[in-house]
Specification:
Elements (H helix, E strand, L loop, with lengths): L9 H7 L9 E4 L5 H10 L7 E4 L21 E7 L8 H20 L3 E4 L3 E4 L2 E14 L6 E12 L19 H5 L5 H22 L2 H10 L6 E6 L2 E10 L5 E4 L5 E4 L3 E2 L1
Parallel strand pairs: 1-2
Antiparallel strand pairs: 2-3, 3-7, 4-5, 5-6, 6-7, 8-9, 8-12, 9-10, 10-11
Helix pairs in contact: 1-5, 3-5, 3-6
Bound molecules: biotinyl-5-AMP (BT5).
Length: 270
């Protein structure tokens, strides 16, 4: 149950937010199907870069590949940001990385917990998933770039904040956690939203100014995947071996049993 003074408000967020453009326009709902779907619709209708969509709950919260995101009311964060980066569609994973850095650092700062990143889009505390990121995009042909370029991207972030253990559904029990469960304290969600948006703007700006290197270095310093033996499922195929690095598009480089480097751009570490 949510106490009335724990509810999110646009004024409460804006009062505290120091960003230049992310969150200049904020849409906040009590209930919605998916903040990503709504942000996508807004972007198509011409919403500005940096527009943020938030909801207290989602009835059809989306994960990747048609999976669902458990989105109970009043305790967590479900937010989507519209970004319009000048980049080829092949670099979209780097926006996921920027968001993962933003979330992991905000959790570290506010709750003092070791939040780690698991390739490509999970934030974990003590091995359990506390947040997930879903980057979606529309593309078009850009005469200045090879292949397709990003027209706009929707960065969706779900964070389990004040979710109690007893409210986690059975099927997620073994793998999901919340900041409250791990820190034993209730977190100010508006404060966390502001820190996430500020971090995201900082890393997005760095990316636009300096390219991929800073993001990749920072991501690696927060990630637990590199250096481990992994099995990655990508579609119907599996790659097994030692995760040795990521490349300039955020693909995972895995050294297989024969010593051959396999490149996996999307998938799940299982
Ligand atoms: C993700 O997908 O982790 C991306 C989640 C993005 C959610 C945000 S909420 C705001 C925005 N609007 C949306 O509609 N979506 C975004 P994936 O890597 O596919 O992981 C999904 C899997 O995580 C599920 O199949 C479950 O196993 C697990 N899961 C679902 N809900 C969870 C939760 N609340 N906490 C932890 N794990 C969860």
């Amino acid at each position: 149950m949510t106490k009335k003074n724990d509810l999110l408000t646009v004024e409460g967020i804006k009062k505290n937010l120091t960003t230049r453009f992310i969150g200049a326009d904020i849409y906040l709902f009590d209930a919605i199907d998916s903040t990503n779907s709504y942000a996508h619709k807004l972007a198509k209708e011409g919403a500005k870069e940096g527009t943020v969509v938030l909801s207290e709950s989602q009835s059809k919260g989306k994960g990747r590949l048609g999976r669902t995101w458990f989105s109970p009311s009043g305790v967590n964060i479900y937010l989507s940001v519209i970004l319009m980066p000048q980049m080829p569609s092949t670099q979209i994973t780097l926006l996921t990385f920027a968001a993962a850095i933003a979330v992991a650092k905000a959790i570290r700062d506010i709750a003092g917990l070791d939040a780690d990143i698991k390739w490509p889009n999970d934030i974990l505390i003590r091995g359990k998933k506390v947040a997930g990121i879903l980057s979606e995009m529309e593309t078009n042909k850009n005469p200045l770039m090879e292949g397709l370029s990003v027209k706009f991207s929707i960065i969706g972030i779900g964070i389990n904040v004040n979710l109690d253990k007893k409210d986690i559904p059975l099927e997620l029990m073994d793998n999901a956690t919340s900041i409250k469960i791990e820190s034993n304290s209730t977190i100010d969600r508006m404060n966390l939203i502001c820190r996430v948006l500020e971090n995201l703007e900082e890393w997005y700006n760095l990316f636009e100014r300096n390219g991929v290197n800073d993001i990749i270095e920072e991501w690696k310093s927060l990630a637990i995947t590199i250096g481990r033996d992994v099995k990655v499922q990508s579609g119907n195929s599996f790659v097994e071996g030692r995760a040795v690095d990521i490349d300039e598009n955020g693909a995972l480089l895995i050294k297989d049993r024969d010593g051959v480097i396999q490149r996996v751009l999307s998938g799940d570490v299982i």
